[in-house]
Amino acid sequence: MPPFVGQAILICFIFLFATPSWAQTQTPEIIDTLHKIKKRGVIRLGYRENSVPFSFLVDNQPIGYSIDLCNAIVKEITVELGIEVRVDYRPVTTHNRFLLLVSGGIDLECGSSSITSERQKKSAFSPVIFVTGTKLLVKRDSPVTNLRDLRNKTVVLTRDTSNADAIERLSKNSSSESRSFLVKTTPNHLTFLLLARRTRLPMMMCYSTVGSPIQR
């Protein structure tokens, strides 16, 4: 796979991204989801509480780029069903977002989920809404400038993400001693950064991203 990976809104099974022609491409999975939404008059939107700028909370209200896109989809669904559809926002984490999607706990996940072949076996995605890659975030005075500098160091990652998968695969690569490093995971990357900061300086003055994008 290329080092840059597209990320998208997660859509329940084959629930396609809203376009003027989307109703003409409905599959049994889409029809079943629409029937459920119409029956209860509610669409369940899963959102991340700290995935800035895509999905996050301000005054206990979900906002962000992905939230705006999901709300646009809700408007299309309202037109398609011919009824008012109420939005039920449900918080999700990197750990449970796919579980809730597949189980029906949410109809649509509005966040920043990467598209991977493994994930596509159980869930479907909208068209790509942005492109990203995995890089290293280090303190500005850190000697680490690339993966080779990580030997005997600790890397902290957000649990259950494609970024974590990519780094963990590298850490288990026994063919290269220079990539022998310890991996720890945390449920929330923002919590870790707040705990790690020892200064009140703005984050951009304390940290920088280094190295080439890491292949996932």
Q: Note the main sheet.
A: 6 strands, mixed
CATH topology (fold) name of the largest domain: D-Maltodextrin-Binding Protein, domain 2
Question: Structurally, how many domains make up the residues?
Answer: 2
Average residue-wise pLDDT: 77
The SS-based structural class is: alpha/beta
User: What is the number of beta strands?
Assistant: 13
Give the end-to-end Cα distance, rounded to a whole number of Å.
7 Å
Fourth CATH level, the homologous superfamily of the largest domain: Periplasmic binding protein-like II
Shape: elongated
CATH architecture of the largest domain: 3-Layer(aba) Sandwich
How much helix, percentage-wise, in residues? 25-40%
List low-confidence stretches.
11-24
Gyration radius from CA atoms, angstroms = 19 Å
Q: What is the CATH level 1 assignment of the largest domain?
A: Alpha Beta
